[in-house]
Amino acid sequence: MKQSLLIFLLLLPFGSAAMSLAEYLSAVSQGHPELRAMAARGGQYEASLQKAEGAYDSTLIHKSAARLSGYYDGIYARQRYVQPIETFNAQFFTEYRISDQDFPVYEQENQTLSGGEASVGVRLSLLQNRDIDDNRFGIRQASVDTQKWRQQVRIAQSEFYFEAIQAYLNWAEAKNYQAAAQQLVETTRAQQNAIQQRVDSGDLADLALTEFATRLLERELSLLEAEGKVQTSLQKLSYFMGGWKGNFYQSQSSLFTEQSRGWQTLFALAEQTRKDINTHPAVATKLLELSVYQQKLRLADTKLLPKLDLEAAIAKDFGAGPAPLEQAETKIGLYFSLPLQRNQAKAEKSKVQLELQQLNAELDALKQAITTQLEEARVNLNYATRLFEMNHQQVSLNNRLLLQEQRQFELGASDFFMLNSREVDAFKAKLKSIRAEFNIYRQQLRILKIQASLDHEFVVSTAATQTWGNEVIIQRTPQL
Asked: The pTM is what?
């Protein structure tokens, strides 16, 4: 359900001439330099995995020799194909060798029949390196590094899109401030004629016009400051959109209408984003690190064992030659090695065990930190929701007071100073309400950031949402 928050934000109407959040995120997701850098780094991890898997590449070995002078003139050639196999640290091999002429007694093993000798065999480990060895550990570590990068890039992407959406909300909030300031300025200008008429009729002194001009100038300055904030926020948007210079908006109307606010629904959807802590990318990364050290502990255990390797082969000569070479041969050999002191292996195992304890403690601390941050964010969200409710009530009350004061002013039962005070109170209440409303959206986004939910795949798929009236159709939903 984490799509719900972003879907809601995507549906917020920013005026017919304004770029929607969906369009904005679609532009951001198309080849931003930060996203390209993340993708390029992934290729490096995949190359490392391919390099580690190369330990099990097959090998072709050729060897030949000839005596050019002396009593013996024997020549021979040997060619072997070796294929390493992960199971039992085995090696499968086939070999063909052929020789001619005479060899001394101490080199008789080189002699074959005229057609040469073909053989096939296998070598495997029975104790040390049977279940895991350096090559298999290297592949697992490279594989885990690739998986860790995928989790880490989800965190980085979530941070990136969080900042991008924050920039968009900052612009939208600035536009709301600008719209409120613009409305106050227009209202103030509309009062000019009424004040002028009352001055002309003697109901107000000429000083009232000067006072009015001062208030109007103050409000125009506030509007200018609001417009400056809009332009500043547009520069930040330009960064996320790669220097995009299009017309971001034309409408001066309020960007968030009462019908589109939907903050109660937004709060309910945020509560539905709860999920298993073990699926968090940071936790998943730590679990992957633990799996590496568990394999490392197995490797340390196997290095404490004696080395016992078995090799078996079947060989057959073809052609004419000495009679003893005509029959097929079956060979079995054992290699045994036992280190009398194993200080290095014991020290390595002890070190890995301590590192595992450290990682487990770090994992518990990480889970606790994420859980605490989420609970804190939900508390802040609840507080922000209550604060907005009160601010919304305050806006309604101030608007009612302002409307009553305007009527009294038109009837001559009130003065300009009281009307100005009511207008200022209503304006400040509206700004506080805008700030409180956007604080809700930011708290919602913070929850998604803590959960690292705003990854690239999710954002791209959600930005493809289409709306038909009040119906929401999700074109595709990512599997996370």
From this structure: 0.75
